[in-house]
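If it is no trouble, might I ask you for a protein's amino acid sequence along with its backbone structure tokens?
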Amino acid sequence: MSTSIEELLRFEEERPPDGEAERQGWLRPVLRILAGAVAIVAVALVALRTVGLQVSIPVLAAGALAVLGVRRVTAALSPPPPPAGGGRIGGGEEEGLYNWGARDALNAAVKRWETPLDWSASRPERFASTVLPRLAELADERLRQRHGTTRESDPARARELLGERLTAFLDNPPRRPPSPRDLAVIVAELEKI
């Protein structure tokens, strides 16, 4: 059977997984971890009973799940294997050279964590859609807990309790996110409520 070059170079997007495959996507690793934990508990229980020690099964199970969880996290953070043939010109890390172009798994993990936390001036829509509503919820909750009112139920009293600056910020937010210093002042005013 012969394959043409067109067939080899054809690009086809993968179909999105259906519901069954998606369920199996998380179920299989969970079952694998649970089976591993059961095996670890059984071996540890037999070993400990052999030497005359008695340990609670839930404690052993928690320890086994913790070890397997840490193993899974470290596997996700491990760097990719080096390319075949070394991939480095002029030597490897052993000789003091580092391949700065390689994908760093820890750096990738930190970038994944930074993205949800990024609300800087470079992303004003993120501030307006994420941070500002949380500040408004916080103001309403503090007003409700400490004074029995909200900005919606009694706007005049809420304006009096919040102050003009905080009320103006929450009701008419600026187009650009405030600087970290201004945001600290706003949060301090919220804490005074």
